[in-house]
Recover the amino acids of this structure.
C-alpha cells in the first residue's frame, strides 16, 4: 500500500501501564469519524489497536515502567496505518496457536493477534517481532 | 451476596441475571475487577445458573473474552450452566470470528435464555 495522502499523523511514546494510550486511541477514532468511516470499520480499527497496545504493554514490555511503547498513527480518507513498537524481546507470530482450534477454544488468552488480522487489511511484524504494522482500507468510500 | 462494582445482578427464579455496568469493557484494571466479580458469583455466592445479558455492552477486548471463558469453566466445574444473551451484532461478530459462539450458549434475548435453563 502506498504511504502518501495522509491527512493526520501522530507519533507518541506511552508508558507501559494499564490504560496507557487511551487518549491517543480516542483521537485516532475521532479522526476516522471525521472522514465518515462507517461504525463497523471504526469498531474493527478500535479493537485491533487496543489488542496491539495490550500485547505491547503486557507481553512485550511486561508492564516494565522503565520501558515505553512507541505508536505511530496515520489517517487518510481511505486508509489508516498503525505502528506499535515495544521494547521487548519480540515473538514469532507463526508460533501463536490458532485459538479457534478445538483444543485451544477454551484457553482464556491468545485471541488478540487473530482479531487484529480479522479486522485489518494488513498485519505485519518486523523481524524481531516487537513491532506490528497494521493497515486498513475503508470498506465504503466517501461520496 | 457481596456488592458488585462492575456488575448489576438480579435473580429471576433460580437464575442469576447479570448485566454489565460498563458499555466498553476495555480498561484492563476494570476487566480484572470484572473477572473477580464474575468468579465470585460462582465461588462465593454459589450461583449455579448464570445469564450474562450483554444489552449494554458496545465494545469488549480479548482480555474480557478470557474472563468469560474462565467463568464458563468455573460454572461447568460446579455443575452449573452459563448462558449469554442480547449481544449486539458487532460484538457477536467477535464471538463468531473467535468461534466462541460454539463454546458459549448464546440466546437472542433474556426471555429465550431464561427459558433454556
Amino acid at each position: 500500500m502506498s504511504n502518501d495522502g495522509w491527512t493526520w499523523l501522530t507519533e507518541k511514546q506511552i508508558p507501559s501501564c494499564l490504560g496507557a494510550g487511551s487518549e491517543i486511541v480516542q483521537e485516532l477514532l475521532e479522526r476516522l469519524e471525521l472522514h465518515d468511516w462507517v461504525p463497523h470499520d471504526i469498531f474493527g480499527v478500535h479493537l485491533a489497536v487496543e489488542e496491539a497496545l495490550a500485547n505491547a504493554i503486557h507481553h512485550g514490555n511486561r508492564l516494565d515502567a522503565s520501558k515505553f511503547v512507541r505508536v505511530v498513527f496515520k489517517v487518510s480518507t481511505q486508509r489508516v496505518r498503525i505502528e506499535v513498537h515495544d521494547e521487548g524481546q519480540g515473538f514469532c507470530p507463526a508460533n501463536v496457536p490458532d485459538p479457534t482450534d478445538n483444543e485451544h477454544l477454551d484457553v482464556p488468552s491468545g485471541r488478540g493477534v487473530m482479531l487484529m488480522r480479522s479486522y485489518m487489511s494488513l498485519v505485519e511484524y518486523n523481524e524481531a517481532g516487537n513491532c506490528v504494522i497494521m493497515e486498513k482500507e475503508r470498506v465504503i468510500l466517501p461520496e | 451476596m457481596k456488592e458488585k462494582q462492575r456488575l448489576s445482578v438480579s435473580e429471576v427464579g433460580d437464575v442469576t441475571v447479570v448485566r454489565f455496568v460498563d458499555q466498553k469493557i476495555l480498561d484492563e484494571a476494570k476487566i480484572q475487577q470484572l473477572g473477580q466479580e464474575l468468579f465470585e458469583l460462582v465461588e462465593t455466592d454459589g450461583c449455579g445458573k448464570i445469564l450474562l445479558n450483554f444489552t449494554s455492552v458496545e465494545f469488549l477486548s480479548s482480555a474480557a473474552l478470557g474472563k468469560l471463558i474462565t467463568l464458563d469453566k468455573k460454572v461447568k466445574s460446579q455443575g452449573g450452566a452459563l448462558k449469554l444473551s442480547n449481544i449486539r451484532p458487532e460484538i457477536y461478530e467477535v464471538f463468531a470470528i473467535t468461534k466462541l459462539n460454539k463454546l458459549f450458549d448464546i440466546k437472542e434475548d433474556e426471555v429465550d435464555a431464561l427459558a433454556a435453563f
In short: Residues 43 and 74 of chain B are 8 Å apart (CA to CA). Chain B touches chain A at residues 26-29, 59, 61-63, 65-67, 69-70, 72-73, 90, 94, 97-100, 102-103 (CB under 8 Å). The radius of gyration of chain B is 13 Å.
